[in-house]
Design goal:
This protein is an alpha+beta fold. The chain has 7 helices and 5 strands. The protein folds into 2 domains: 14-141, Ribosomal protein L22/L17 (Ribosomal Protein L22, Chain A, Alpha-Beta Complex), CATH 3.90.470; 144-220. Helix 3 packs antiparallel against helix 4. The N and C termini lie far apart (160 Å). The relative contact order is 0.09.
Length: 238
Amino acid sequence: MAAPITHDERRTNERPGVRAQHRFARVSAYKAREVLDLIRGKSVAEARTMLQFLDRAVAETVAKVLDSAVANAANNNDIPPEELFVASAYADEGPTLKRWRPRARGRATRIRKRTCHITIIVGRYSPEELTKVRERMAGRERPSGDAAADRARRVARSRAAQEQDDATEDGATADEGAEDSAADTALAEDESVQDADETAADDTAAADTDTAADDAATADEDATASEDGENDPEQKDD
């Protein structure tokens, strides 16, 4: 069980570590505390990364205060920045600037411009904690010496994948061309067979027509001959 916090430890001026303070910041203490709560207990590198990508206007001011505290620790106490963490971060309310805005019927509305005092205290990791932090950071980030090799491997994989895609597209195009050629050949053969069938049918129809015409001509000749025989009296007498 943790030891109870004494009255002296609650006093902000007696907290261990190196501090930096920005007084009369033109932002409310509520907005500053929302950002300070995020970086409290983080290492300096993690806190800087969070403040860099945080979508709050006060994050820029907090980042400047953090850099000032780190610079104080490096210059005054000879502590490297990688061994520091945000031990404490808080914002106290400052004086409120009162302004007035004119409204209808000669009235006025009060505008309160809040200010605050931002304080950041950085502490030094113990050797055991520093080892754990370095192991955690090493697990998250790859060594900088392998960056070029990793990039070369990624480029090689991308090029190989692109070449494979191009080869697949060329093969698909060739297959489509072969299928189109085979389809054209089959269509041409079907058309030639159809033309041959139509020609044979036309020839058969023409032959049937000629045969029918010959039969009709023969029948006409026979009919004419029989009529001539009936009309010739000499043939009757004979």
